[in-house]
Amino acid sequence: MAILLSEDFTFLVQGITGREAVNLTKECLDYGSKIVGGVTPGRKGREVHGVPVFDTVVQAVENHGSPIDGSVVTVPPAFTKDAVFEAIENGVKLIVVVTERIPRRDVAEMVELANLRGARIIGPNCLGVIAPGVGKMGGIGGPAQDAAKAYEPGPVGVMSRSGGMTTEISSTLTAAGVGVSTAVSIGGDAIIGSTYAELMPLFEEDDQTEAIVIYTEPGGRMEAELVDWREESGALPIVAFMAGKFMDEEEMQGMSFGHAGTIVEGAEDSATEKINRLEDAGIPVVERIDEIPDAVKERLGAEREPASASDGGEA
Questions:
Q1: Which of 24, 151, 201, 254 has its CA 20 to 30 A from that of 31?
Q2: Could you confirm whether 259 is annotated as catalytic?
């Protein structure tokens, strides 16, 4: 199993005739994903790697003959909100927004409509979602052969603001023989559709996922939200990888580390404070990527030991 994607999951690519989207479409198809249509106004009748192109989402849904599960949105920032609205209003439930530099008000309105319609947005400014061996939405992992090397099926869910770090973490887990259940590049902007805490219930319900790795950095309040959620509802073991501890230096205050959504506004946004908050909540923090597999294995071992002891007692 996995979260968000399945073997029969279908999706569109909005803005499919753009250069980035053409490459993305091929990568997803080569990986085994089911892209059933593309949308670019004025380009109806064309094909991109065998995928039919339509002027509107309505036409794509009518051609498919049944609801389409998802959409990857790659249109320019000024038109992204309209594209996302069109997808949501036509029954699409998972929208991966690749586009960056979208006006914040537009993003807020997109997320609000998605919440009203029971849809979910991943991004914006993200690489997408991959369930190893099942499918992928977006450019995550790159070409299919590279994605297959970096992402092998396993019991660990991965979430990261950084698209590149999503693959780096997953590749490290794969090389260590651990593997990944689902990896989500959630996006680096100040406003995004799905935070760590909002995705955690999906991982908690997934039979394949036994642990989580998150990428964290100075700035932003997403980790505090995750801690609050964990204290109320969480059960899965979590390991955090912290980058950018140098941002704690006084002259770095008020600056952004890496992503628009990670501005360090004060002490509570610092790397040191985040580490303390996470570790107080029982979430170990590593500061080197090669330390992740051992930290995960330790957490998985701790979770499995009581069950093993119980089984031995019954025998």
A1: 201
A2: yes
